[in-house]
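ok so i was messing around last nite and threw this chain in just to see what happens. nothing serious, just curious
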Amino acid sequence: MAPFRGRTDAYQDASSYHGRGMMVRCPVYDDHLICLLPTDHDGDCVDGGLAAPLRALVRDNPHYALGISTSVPLPATAQAYDQARHALAVAGHTPERVADYHGRPPLAGLLPRRQALAWARAFLEPIRAAPRLTLDITSLALNFPRSGVARLLDVSRNTVTAHLKRAQDALGLNLQDPRSRAELALALAINDLPPPDDNAIAEHVATPSVDSLLSTEAAITWAHAFLHPLQPGTDRTVHQTLRAWIEAGTDAQRTAQTLGISRTTVRAHLHTAEQLLKRSLQTPGPGTHDLVNAFRITDRAP
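result:
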């Protein structure tokens, strides 16, 4: 999959299909196109009627950028979208304006499965009886702006706000706080993983704290690897800006006031961090959740 930033009329037909490929307008971001490209039997991307023209469009127009996910099965399209969105954030800051996704295993899958699932189920218990729309809106709002969620589900923004308030009241969270958002996203990700084997499910597992889960060796290794690009040979001001940005609720203006720098400088540091971490940070989503969790883990690690 390849989110593509460009004009929607640059290359399209009435049905959105192009040979074996497909291009559709992103339902959330007006300047994004989502392109599905087929792969051959070895997993390599084939032209599909779209790959070559997309690269040519990006090459010839400095306002276009292309982010490319790894090859995934069709049911994992949502995962591919997240990967391509991260790659697109990186692509916008490279001379070629094209980037492939190079990610690490997600944190949720590295935690001890039975203990992690026990925590996630206990964490999410207060909203299990909520209407399906509340659950859908809450999950989507962790990855997209509220206006985008409203557009995606064809509801009003006030409806989105009301359902989010119901969820955060039930969970006792402030969903404006990136740390609360990251914790909820982690619980949902763990809950979506395949369950352990039947015998493991039958065993009683005491519900651990999230901090004990994030203190495991696997979590610490993941966090150090995630943050490593910010350390060697880089300006510490980028690291300091990211810390302050999280503390300020990912508000660039408040971050600038805290650090005594301009908002433009904050944005520049965030762009640099996106390049180094290969994650999208300036739109709601997994990139910010990963950053919050990595800081939380390393702050507690020996």
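not much to say yet. The beta strands are 2-5, 17-18, 21-25, 32-36, 65-68, 98-100.
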